[in-house]
Specification:
Layout lengths: L7 H6 L2 E6 L2 E7 L13 H15 L11 E11 L7 E11 L3 E9 L5 E12 L3
Antiparallel strand pairs: 1-2, 2-4, 3-6, 4-5, 5-6
Length: 130
C-alpha cells in the first residue's frame, strides 16, 4: 500500500510519497510549468521543498495506529548540482542521527534518468501536536 501525504502544501505542489518507513522517506514530483522560474528552469525553492519534506518525513515515521510525529526544520542546506526543465523528480532521504529532541537527515534529488539534481541535509526539532 502506498502511503499518503496529509500536507496541503505538498499536495498542492504535486508531491507524492512513494515509500515511508522507519528512517527513510521517498517522494516523486512531476514537474509542472508553474514550478519554473523566469529563465524556464526549475525553481530552486521547489527543489529545496523536496529536500526539506523528505528529510523531515524520514525522521517522523510512525507505524499505523501510533500517534503522529511532528517536527519543525531547524536547519536546511541544499546543494544544487544540475538543472532540469521537465520530467519527474525523485527524492530519497534517510535519517542519519539524533536524539530525543532533535534529528538529522540527508536527501538526494534525481531526475527521471537518475541524474543527481541536488543533495541536502537538514536538522529538525520534534514537537508535540497541539
Amino acid at each position: 500500500m502506498t502511503p499518503t501525504i496529509v500536507n496541503p502544501f505538498l499536495q498542492h505542489m504535486g508531491i507524492q510519497i512513494t515509500k515511508w518507513s522507519e528512517g527513510i522517506a521517498e517522494f516523486r514530483m512531476p514537474i509542472q510549468t508553474w514550478h519554473m522560474n523566469r529563465a524556464g528552469a526549475l525553481q530552486g525553492g521547489v527543489v529545496s521543498t523536496l529536500v526539506d519534506a523528505a528529510c523531515g518525513y524520514a525522521g517522523m515515521y510512525a507505524p499505523p495506529g501510533a500517534p503522529e510525529i511532528h517536527g519543525v526544520t531547524i536547519t536546511l542546506n541544499v546543494n544544487f548540482v544540475a538543472g532540469v526543465k521537465a520530467g519527474v523528480l525523485n527524492v530519497a532521504a534517510k535519517k542519519i542521527g539524533g536524539g530525543r529532541k532533535i534529528f538529522f537527515s540527508e536527501a538526494q534529488v534525481f531526475d527521471e534518468n537518475g541524474t543527481l539534481i541536488a543533495s541536502g541535509q537538514a536538522s529538525f526539532k520534534y514537537r508535540l501536536n497541539t
